[in-house]
Design goal:
The chain is an alpha+beta fold. The longest helix is centred in the last third of the chain and has 28 residues.
Length: about 300
């Protein structure tokens, strides 16, 4: 799954790194970091900086990502998260290429799906979201409804074939979107990317949230919905996460998160279909996209779905 497997840094990247003051004229050890689906990531060690070796994390955006990622927003969100102690320190950003250089979180390790099944770990994530959501508004508002609309149009543009059940799912999504538009959205700064590797944990250190490529002002419940969806939370786990975040779980909060978990899978399912065309990759984005959409379809047939829609 890693885009960084068996590759070497490009000449363009090496040239850019030498323009960064902390790297200029220094001996660099550059190795790929696994885990990126749409970016190529590197660890860069400065081996002779006179103050002891220090490691940096370098993110290089992949082709086609400018279609749905606003680099200026990424930079603003990354800096804001760093200032709040939510994300790593941002040391450099190139607005032309989107290349970003952050502190390398030594001592931290990315979470796994198994980690996030543990209540003590998932509670840390929920608390981290509470802290992040309390920050100032980001420069861009892009709601879950905007995200789905954008990807739907890209799938139409690409002429990507989908099974007939996907069209029925999108009709169900349209009804959910109309309910949210009618009730109003609770807009806060959101991270919008609940991948396990984006949660970095370490013993006796605070958890950090990394990778703000998809950050925007968005519906608060979407962040929680995407989280409980990504990690297959059951009803008890979902209720607990809502209670940790809000201090209670009433019918409306429950319904908003439950419907948002379906919207999150619709969003990422369509994202997969878009990337199936954008990337020449060993990773099967089309299969990934349909799997996400099928899970959304499953939850939209829950016996409580109509009641959840009516309670938003």
């Amino acid at each position: 799954m890693s885009l960084a497997a068996a590759i070497e840094p490009s000449a363009e990247l090496l040239t850019l790194l030498q323009k960064v003051p902390v790297f200029a004229g220094k001996k660099l050890d550059i190795v790929p970091v696994s885990g990126g689906l749409t970016n190529v990531n590197w660890r860069v060690d400065v081996c002779d900086d006179g103050a002891g070796d220090r490691a940096y994390f370098v993110k290089v955006p992949g082709p086609g990502t400018d279609e749905f990622i606003n680099r200026a927003t990424v930079y603003a969100a990354s800096r804001q998260a760093a200032s709040m102690g939510v994300g790593p320190e941002v040391l450099f950003f190139d607005p032309e290429t989107g290349i970003e250089i952050d502190e390398f979180l030594g001592g931290h390790k990315p979470c796994t799906t198994a980690d996030l099944a543990r209540e003590e770990i998932s509670d840390q994530v929920v608390e981290l979201y509470r802290k992040w959501h309390a920050g100032a508004a980001l420069p861009e508002t892009k709601t879950m409804l905007d995200l789905v609309d954008e990807h739907r149009e890209q799938v139409r543009r690409d002429g990507t074939a989908v099974p007939s059940w996907v069209n029925q799912l999108l009709a169900t999504y349209d009804e959910a979107a109309a309910r949210f538009r009618a009730s109003g959205l609770d807009i806060v700064p959101c991270h919008n990317d609940a991948m396990p590797g984006n949660y970095m944990r370490a013993p006796a250190r605070s958890m950090r949230l990394i990778d703000y490529d998809y950050a925007s002002n968005n519906e608060r419940a979407y962040e929680l919905g995407g989280f409980v969806c990504e990690f297959f939370f059951d009803r008890e786990q979902t209720r607990h996460a809502i209670e940790v975040y809000f201090g209670h779980c009433d019918r409306e909060l429950w319904s908003r998160v439950q419907v948002c978990r379906v919207i999150a899978d619709v969003k990422w399912g369509l994202w997969g279909l878009v990337n199936a065309v954008a990337w020449n990759s060993d990773f099967d984005y089309y299969k990934y996209g349909l799997w996400k959409l099928k899970r959304a379809d499953f939850f939209s047939h829950d016996p409580d779905w109509a009641d959840d829609l009516g309670s938003i």
